[in-house]
Amino acid sequence: MRMEILKKSKVMAQAGPKVKRLLIDQHCFHSNGITHHPTSLFMDIFPLEIRQRIPSPSRKSQISSKRASVLVPLIHITDLSQESSTIPSILFTKRSSHLRDHASQVSFPGGHLEERDEGCPIRAALRETREELTSTSSSLYDSYNFEEGVTMLGRTGDIPSMRNVPVTPVVGMFQEEFTMSQVEQFFPGNQTEVERIFAVPMDELWRVEGKEYLPRLGVNGPVYDTIHGKIWGLTALILHPILHRVLIPAFLDGGVGVDNNRYQED
């Protein structure tokens, strides 16, 4: 199967450095080796009422020895029906219905760190993304070079899951622009883990954002009712501060056609 040639995205190239400045710079992802730096928790990126109820990473007896990371994949979608239409978006996966944990939920690609990740959450996030987005078929597995095509911009501090596993949100950016048909072509999904892959525009996420009661935390948390499914739980908790405090400022300043007035906080 012959894959289409992708065009580099000027939008992502322009906004990428701005996103990076707003994130913790974690220099553990290098092709020629790994450098470890102390982890800054940066927990203030999460709302106070949420932070107060999430198990604290400082209580080592409560925290799992496992670690995990997820990738928040930024992607430039082009709309062929409108000339010069630019849609900065975020890529999500819908997990397979037969999975034991979090079946059929919308999530970011990610998972537990493995020995081959050498303790680097950024490396783990990229590896898990490649494994989840690509087909198990060998003919398609190497169709997209994630190491070259995805720029890792940085990370926030860890947020413990409800099972007390520290999760590191990592923000990465696809360097090319895609039509939705190209997203389906290049990222058909790993059939054993993922039901489908889709992109949601950043401005749509802001428009549909709401609140929902989280029984486990006993507080209201963010929720996003999209046409592709509901984004809630840990995925929504990670998305909300990154969307408001990192992506919207970076892409608004980048002049990508998003209405500045829509993003004024109450």
Structural features, described:
With 266 residues, the chain is an alpha+beta fold. It has 8 helices and 12 strands. The protein has helices at residues 10-21, 48-51, 121-133, 138-141, 146-149, 180-186, 202-208, 233-253, and strands at 7-8, 68-78, 86-95, 106-107, 110-112, 150-155, 159-160, 166-178, 194-201, 209-214, 219-226, 229-231. Strands 1, 2, 3, 4, 5, 6, 7, 8 and 9 form a 9-stranded mixed β-sheet that branches. The chain has a 3-stranded antiparallel β-sheet with strand order 10-11-12. Strand 10 and strand 11 (219-226) form a beta hairpin. Helix 1 packs across helix 8 and helix 7 crosses helix 8. The longest helix has 21 residues, at 233-253. The protein starts with 6 loop residues before the first strand and ends in a 13-residue tail after the last helix.
Describe the structure in brief.
This protein is of the alpha+beta class and 266 residues long.
In one word, what is the shape? globular
Low-pLDDT stretches are 29-42, 254-266
Distance between the termini: 50 Å
Largest sheet: 9 strands, mixed
Strand content: 25-35%
Class inferred from helices and paired strands: alpha+beta
